[in-house]
Amino acid sequence: MSKVNPNPLPLVFEQPKGRGKPPRHLADLDLAARVDAVEGLGLPGFRAKQLSRHYFTRLVDDPADMSDLPADVRDAMVDGLMPRLIEPVRTMEADRGTTRKTLWKLFDGALVESVLMRYPDRATICVSSQAGCGMACPFCATGQGGLQRNMSTAEIIEQVVDGARAMHRGEIPGGPGRLSNVVFMGMGEPMANYPAVIGAVRRMVDESPAGLGMSARNITVSTVGLVPRINQLASEGIPVTLALSLHAPDDELRDELVPINTRFKVAEAVEAAWEYARTTKRRVSIEYAMIRDINDQAWRADMLGDLLRSYGDWGWVHVNLIPLNPTPGSIWTASDPADEREFVRRLEAKGIPTTVRDTRGQEIDGACGQLAAVEG
To answer: Model-level pTM?
Structure first.
């Protein structure tokens, strides 16, 4: 393996020059700011709650269904505060329709993806937070394409609301239901777009009509290890689940698999994750893509187990092994099942709770970034 460029990556990516901002949407605003925006349209402020209730609670997107709003102001309110931010380009289904992947086009033509997955006991949507990604992890389809731009809070929320609507309307096999979980594991590094991501989290947990009224415990924010942002998230008072994408327990390998490791080393990232668990009382998930003959050796399982166990055995951590979903033409491929089982056995022998992620959607370009790469 060739060495990566040692130059440090930026902590937060600024919007690339030449990229305009998406139109203002009520999901970008808290309830007080929505009142100001509605009054700015020449309408009474109480209409902001009505419009918010339609969007976040009733999950309505057609002005004709907003019967409590006067007919002569509906279109103006929707045009002013509910512009279309994402348009579906392509939708693919797997697992008898219970997994649905959507490729979205943003207002400026950028492409992002979301995946809605229905299980017997829950429904989860995996959302994107950036168009592309600047973290440059070589085994990741999104990382291969580079960063185009950050997404806005509302662009993120639109993915979530679309999934909630699909469940509410019974579009996913199993009948009408409720979207229960959100994971920031789609395109992009969430912590590199922190203001928009934390804004989206707040809209998710805000009670109706301010937001979707979801439980923070059912929201997972992933990161490759931007330590200052992990620390900042711990101070927000919103106990979301933190997922640290580690992928290697040693700096030599992780420098190559996750280039931000040249700035924040394994020990620093794990220390920050442990502090997050200690502060929030929420168990951290360690994400670990199993890559054949690269990071799946038994001795690396032992090293990972020893590292995590060094912080104590009070249940602060859980390891989530991810069978790699290879991208077309990639040299990277999933681990042999026997090696995967041995990895699990070694971690569990050290008292580390470990699971292997249920892999869905391989037949529909399930790895984030694959569909966008093909369409782009």
So the answer is: 0.92
